[in-house]
């Protein structure tokens, strides 16, 4: 499977990997995480709220997030690229503000633990995961026994999993890599996705869409218009040639037999 009919997912995966590699090569990874006390309260670097979800600072998180967004590209196919891109932008704005506020409120209870917000779009991934959980059905289920095979009369003892379980496992591992900051972001992202789907947010936010040109809708419309124009021209040309041939045949039928014989002798001479 590829990114067919999922251009936004392709852009997200390629952009995430490229930005993470670029931050590492340029040695600017220290700009993409947040220390609440230092960066926000002391120096007022509030631009970090919009920057910390642009990339990750270690390869394990990049790998899990890229696989996660790739596996959830079916959400874009079900929604369409424009709605999916609008959802990503809306989720990014909510998850850029809410996790820092929560950690700021809880920081007095554990200043050393709740002062750090890790880099990366983990909250956005969990917002998409909430849609993936609700929209995409599982294809199959399988069981893993936790003990020896019991007699047929006893109930099965083990775990029942589906083909979607590995996606949840990777996302859960990503949420726990730099907890509690990553875990708080994951919970906020999941709740954002659920609120968006259930209409808890204002309708103006849910119905908002990014401009069509950002996802190539204008180009697609122009291509469709040119294709329709070409087909109309071909149909008009076919109809014209058919009409001329029909008129010639009708004229032949209107001439008498003697006129047709005279015309044949004139062409021979």
Automatic annotation (TrEMBL):
Q: Where in the cell is it found?
A: Membrane
Q: What is this protein called?
A: Putative UBA domain-containing protein Ucp14
Q: How does it sit in the membrane?
A: Multi-pass membrane protein
The UniProt keywords, alphabetically, are: Membrane, Transmembrane, Transmembrane helix
Membrane listed as a keyword: yes
InterPro entries recorded: Rhomboid-like_sf
The principal localisation class reads membrane
